[in-house]
Amino acid sequence: MEHFVGLEAKLRRWYEQNKRHLPWRETSDPYIIWLSEIILQQTRIDQGLAYFKRFVENYPTVEKLAEATEDEVLKLWQGLGYYSRARNLHYTAKTISTVYNGNFPSDYKEILSLKGVGEYTAAAVASISFNLPHAVVDGNVYRVLSRLFGIDTPIDSTEGRKQFNELANEILNQKNPGDHNQAMMEFGALQCTPKKPKCGDCIFNDWCLALKENIVDQLPVKKGKIKIKHRYFNYLLLSNGTSAYIQKRTANDIWQNLYEFPMIETSEKTEIDQVLNGSSSLYNPQTDLVEEVSGWGKQVLSHQHIHYRFIQIQLKNKKSLLPGLIEVNKKDIFNFAVPKPVEKKLTQLNWF
Ligand code: SF4
């Protein structure tokens, strides 16, 4: 470690000269920091920035977010994916409003106890808003540390998480942990990037062990790949005059509490007849007309690939409402928060 003396000061200078000016860097308001951290997880900054601005505009305080309905929050979040983050965001806003009288907790353990807040977010809010000495360890930090210190312990192992967490806390600037954490993450995002890191003009290129040993492209190490699950969604676009039918996804599954067309899930790409035979409560072959069947599309999620298609059906009669089925006027359908495949389909329909 000794030859890394001065790392922190060098990093801080680099950060001052290179940091991007982003709205959440202009404040220490814990609501804003928390909001930005939740929005930016697994999201590119340019995409996240637009959502962040929209949320701050609609809900400038945690109280305002708490007052919104979950449907409104999900609608604003639509397109960002990982919808449990939005549901937890809303749930936690309500907790802060009721349990903490609208004041964000300032204790690390209390922050960590909030729904949807993991160690990473808790450390970010604690250090940036309350100057508490907790190191943030996100994907950027894993990468920078593994390369700088030449560590090949898999970052997705218990041992790796512990080792990197300890190291990140060891080198943390105790007096200014917020800036230090942001500098580490920014350095990973701009300089020590996953592909083609800029080692040539790197402030650490005389120290960096990975560079010295020529193993930059081998670090960080990951243990195993995630097993992807394939699912097949057959959406029934039932329509009758100005009416269409949707349902809310209430199960504990992807896209929970979003709306979609009635859907039949199959274990593989199944023949249309087979799908429709299994949905007699929605489709009557004697009277209803299958107008169009789309090709298969694919929505890639982190652990699942959703294969989907749309079967457009003209109903002879209005549906007597089955439990969970909602009749809506076609022109109102854009008011509902829907998953990406449905959103895409809506923009292609000539319903409006
Ligand atoms: S020298 Fe290269 S690998 Fe090492 S810290 Fe700098 S950018 Fe990253």
Walk me through this protein's architecture.
Helices cover about 40% and strands about 15% of the residues. It has helices at about 5-20, 30-40, 45-60, 60-65, 70-75, 85-100, 110, 120-130, 140-150, 160-170, 175-190, 210, 270-275, 340-350, and strands at about 230-240, 245-250, 260, 265, 290-295, 295-300, 305-315, 325-330. A hairpin with a 2-residue loop joins strand 1 and strand 2 (about 245-250). The mean pLDDT is about 90. Bound molecules: iron/sulfur cluster. Iron/sulfur cluster binds near residues 191, 192, 197, 208 and 211.
What is the rounded Rg? 25 Å
Q: What's the helix-strand series?
A: HHHHHHHHHHHHEEEEHEEEEH
The total strand number stands at 8
Low-confidence segments, ≥5 residues, pLDDT <50? none
Going by CATH, what is the homologous superfamily of the largest domain? Hypothetical protein, domain 2
Total domain units: 2
Q: What's the rounded overall pLDDT mean? A: 92
Please report the distance between the alpha carbons of the first and last residues. Answer: 65 Å
Largest sheet: 8 strands, mixed
CATH topology of the largest domain: Endonuclease III, domain 1
Q: Helix count, per DSSP?
A: 14
Main CATH class of the largest domain: Mainly Alpha
CATH hierarchy: architecture of the largest domain: Orthogonal Bundle
Q: What secondary-structure arrangement, pairings included, does this model have?
A:
Blueprint: H1 7-18, H2 30-40, H3 45-58, H4 62-67, H5 70-77, H6 83-99, H7 108-112, H8 119-130, H9 139-148, H10 158-170, H11 177-190, H12 209-212, E1 229-240, E2 243-248, E3 259-260, E4 263-266, H13 272-277, E5 289-293, E6 297-300, E7 304-314, E8 325-329, H14 340-348
Parallel strand pairs: 1-7
Antiparallel strand pairs: 1-2, 1-4, 2-3, 2-8, 5-7, 6-7
Helix pairs in contact: 1-11, 2-3, 2-8, 5-6, 8-11, 9-11
The protein binds iron/sulfur cluster.
Iron/sulfur cluster is lined by residues 147-148, 191-192, 197-199, 202, 204-205, 208, 210-211, 216.
